[in-house]
Each structure stands twice: as C-alpha cells, then as structure tokens.
Amino acid sequence: MYLDDILIYSKTMDEHIRHLRQVLEISQNEQFHAKLSRSEFALNQVPFLVHVISAREVHVNPENIEAVKQWKQLGTLSPWNPQTLISHRDPKFTSKLWKELMRLLITRLEMSSTYHRQTNGQTERLNQIVEQLLRVACKDEISKWDQQLPLLEFSNNNATHSATGQTPFFLCFGRHPLILQ
What we know:
The chain is an alpha+beta fold and about 180 residues long. Helix content is about 40%, strand content about 10%.
C-alpha cells in the first residue's frame, strides 16, 4: 500500500532526520512502502495542496492565484454556477484563492452564523430526513446508529425525490449506481 502527502515538519535538521527515520520505520513495519524516487527531503518550503508551507508561514500558493486569474471570464452563467455559496466559516473558503474564484464566477460567498442550523435550509431538511431514517432503522439497537449511516446514505441518494423526479445520485453523476449482487 502506498501513502501520499506525508508532511514531516521539524524545527532542526537533526530533529527532521530523527522524525523521518521514525516515520519510515513505522511505515515499513506496517507494510507501507515509500517510493523514494517521488519523495523530497529537507525542504525549506513545501507546496501542499493549495498552500506553500515554510518555517515562517503558511500562504496560498501564488501559482494557484495566478491560475484562477487566467481563467476566462464567464460570458453567461450556467445553471451550475451558484449565485450564492454559504460556508460554515471553513478556513478554506476564507482564503484569497476562494475569494478570487468567487469574484470570477460572480458568486456571492456568505458565511453562515455559527451554530445556527436554520441558515442553510437544505442542510436542515437533510438532517430531518436522516433523523427519521435513523429512528426507523435503529429502533431496536439505537447504540449502533453509526453503523447504519452508509446504508441510509445509499438509500436516500437512490430514492426518487418528488421535487426533481430523479435520484440525488443521478442528478450528481448523470447515471445510476452500479449495484453488485
């Protein structure tokens, strides 16, 4: 088995070598294999996802911001371009990259009130559905509610909804799921 994106942060080079040795030993003991040809060691700064991490700071990768700026301006909005995006104050939505993306997509980014469930009506409705499904599925063994979630998610995503006449799975992926027997 292979793992990607392991970041080992250390204050000194000696500490880094010690941490690296520990991670590689544990990985080897657990049957994980490092592909050293694709690995980099002892870097002063590291591009990680959309950020650049260094000993002094974490900032958005300037290449990502520039890439967003180079996108063509949308002439017309498609039904898939939301007019408003509501975030529960997730840090990724407060970054410069997201702010620039929202500006280019002509989408308003709004932050929901913390701990205010009614801010997003769709989420509130889905929570009600999940509660109802859990009551039925777990009436005999309420302590095992978490084990029922994957089946309930599958059931809900593959049930035809009256508002659309389609299943959420079909609307998201444009096809019905493969069901293995």
